[in-house]
Structure formats: structure tokens, C-alpha cells
Amino acid sequence: xxxxxxxxxxxxxxxxxxxxxxxxxxxxxxxxxxxxxxxxxxxxxxxxxxxxxxxxxxxxxxxxxxxxxxxxxxxxxxxxxxxxxxxxxxxxxxxxxxxxxxxxxxxxxxxxxxxxxxxxx
Length: 121
Known about the structure:
By secondary structure, the chain is mostly helical. The protein has helices spanning about 5, 20-25, 35-45, 50-65, 70-90, 90-100, 105-110, and strands at about 30-35, 115-120.
């Protein structure tokens, strides 16, 4: 009797995987990922400096619109208002992309319990 028969969840346990192994094994379907959506949203917003980008866009867009350049200001206001919502909606995908391409992001996502890597059955 092996460990899998005794403990059916043995394959479901979180595994320690190097970034290189993660990078090569994920496209082949070797791993299953679990992403904490709330933590992913916070991490991606912080990592991409969303607030620092959206607030100036809102301010510059409002200033342009109020000074008579409505067609230049309105798109900036829209982008500044929608950027945080778009980032929030797609945070898990953005985190996965960042983790695949950056070892530091991968380590931080694992360390801060944003991302769990499990072996695929």
C-alpha cells in the first residue's frame, strides 16, 4: 500500500517548486494553481503602482477638460477611473503572467500565500 492509497489528498498538497521548473511545467499542465483573489488584487495593485498612475491621469484629465480641452481630458479621466477596476478584475491573470516572467514575483506570491502550486493529478 503506497502513500497515495493511505492519503488520497497527497497529490493535492502544495509543493515546493523552483521558478524554472514552474516556468517549464505550467504550460505542460504539470501543476494546478490556486490564487487567493483578494491578496492577488492587493499585490498587483501595489506592484503595478496603479494608484500612482490613475490619480495623475484623473487630475490631468480633469484639468484639461475644465480648461476647454474636453476631447483630450475625457479619455484621460476615463482611463484613470477604469484602470483600477480593470486591474482588479484581471488580477489573477496579471499575477500569473508576472510570476511566469519574474522569479522575484513568483517567490513573493508563494511567500505571501497569494499563489499555491500543486501537482496536477
